[in-house]
Amino acid sequence: MQGYTVKTLTQFIIERQADFPYATGEFTRLLYHVGVAAKLVNKKVNKAGLVDILGEAGNINIQGEEQKKLDLLANWQFVQALKNSRECCGVASEEDQEIITWDDDLSRDGNYIFCMDPLDGSSNIDVNVSIGTIFSVYRRLSPRGTKPTMEDFLQPGNRQVAAGYVIYGSSTMLVYSTGRGVYGFTLDPSIGEFCLSHLNITTPADGKIYSINEGNYSHFPEGVKKYIDYCKGDDKATGRPYSARYIGSLVSDFHRNLLKGGIFLYPPTASAPKGKLRLIYECNPIAFLAEQAGGMASDGTRRILDIQPESLHQRVPLYVGSKNMVEKLIEFL
Ligand code: AHG
Ligand code: MN
Ligand code: MN
Known about the structure:
Blueprint: H1 9-17, H2 26-58, H3 62-85, E1 88-93, H4 105-109, E2 112-120, E3 131-139, H5 150-153, E4 162-168, E5 172-177, E6 182-188, E7 193-198, E8 209-211, H6 222-232, E9 243-244, H7 250-260, E10 263-266, H8 279-292, E11 296-298, E12 318-321, H9 323-332
Parallel strand pairs: 1-2, 8-9, 8-10
Antiparallel strand pairs: 2-3, 3-4, 4-5, 5-6, 6-7, 10-12, 11-12
Helix pairs in contact: 1-2, 2-3, 6-9
Bound molecules: 2,5-anhydro-1,6-di-O-phosphono-D-glucitol (AHG) and manganese (II) ion (2 copies).
2,5-anhydro-1,6-di-O-phosphono-D-glucitol is lined by residues 94, 117, 120-122, 213, 248-250, 276.
C-alpha cells in the first residue's frame, strides 16, 4: 500500500518540547495557536483575489478597502489566537500603536510576550505577490499574574526565545526557530496541516543575489552606493555581477535569500533617515532566523540582536543575509 509519511508542526513541537529541560508545555501551546492563526489567515489571503472579483462586480470602490481589511483581519486573527492560547500576556503589533493586554487572570498569568507584523508586504496583496506574517516571542520580565509592562516589550533581540514567519506564497510555509536551528513547514492544504519540509535550514555563506529598493539609490549612504556598484561589477572569481531580486515583501525577499544565499538591504534614505523597517517585529525576528541559519544581520555598525530598543515602533537600517556578503558590505560602510 502507498504510504504518506508526514510530521506535522504539532507533532514536531510536542517532540521538541523534550529538548527544553524545564519545558512545561506552555510554549508548545503558544506555538500551536500561532499555527492555527496562520492557517486561518492563509485561507483569507488565498481568497483575496476572489473577494476582489466579487467586489468589482458589485462596487468598484470596495477593492482598496478589502485590501486594507486584510491587514486588520490578520492582526485580529493572531491577537485572538494569542488570547485563546492563555500563554501570552501581551502583544505588540505593527497595526496597534499601544501594546495589547487582557484583563482576565489566565492571560495575566501567561509567561510570553508576542511581537508581530501581522501582514508584511501588504502593498503586494492586490497584485497576487507573496506576503507574510513575522513574529517574535520573549519571556516576560514582569511577574506573572500582573499586567505586562513596556520593559517586557523593549528587550533586545538576543533575548528572543523564538521567532518565525509565515509566507503566503506559491505554497504557504511556516518557518521558525527556538534557538536550535531553523525549521520550515509547508502547508498541505489537502489535510490542512503544516508538514515538516525543511529540516535545519542553513543559509549559504556566500550568495549571488542582492535585494534592495534601488530606486532610492540617490538617497543611499555613500558606502551602500559603493557596495551596489560592487555587486554590479564584473568579476568571475567572485561570481559578479550578482543578480538583483526585490519583491518588496521583507518576508519573501528574506525567505528566498535564506534558501539561496544573498543579501537584503534596507538602508537609511532621505525620507526614512533611520531606515524603514521596525526593530521589534521585523528586524529582530528576521535577524534571529538569519543567525540561527548561519547568516548575519547588522544595522551597519551593530549586530541587530544587540540593539537596545527604545520604543515599540522604532525603525533601524537592516542588512541581513549570507555572512560573507554582510561582512563585505560593512567593509564598504
Ligand atoms: P508592511 O507591509 O508590513 O508595511 O511592510 C512593508 C515593508 C517590507 O515588507 C518591505 O521589505 C519594505 O516595506 C518595502 O519597502 P519599499 O517599498 O520602500 O521598497
Ligand atoms: Mn512589514
Ligand atoms: Mn505589516
